[in-house]
Amino acid sequence: MTExxxxxxxxxxxxxxxxxxxxxxxxxxxxxTIENGREYEFAGWNxxxxxxxxxxxxxxxxxxxx
Length: 66
Hints:
The protein is mostly beta strands. The protein has one domain. Helix content is 0%, strand content 47%. Strands 1-2-3-4 form a four-stranded antiparallel beta sheet, with no helix packed on it.
């Protein structure tokens, strides 16, 4: 049961990190695959709007393997 999970086209997964070694690490990590089969990784950080004080998630997306 050590098969690597592969996303279906135009689908992805995101997981909440349970442990962070420092405050700069993302709160969420995941990956997705677009229609042409290219894979991307993304990371998300919990944030709060300065004026609205509404919570949101700030994202970073990069091609997988970079």
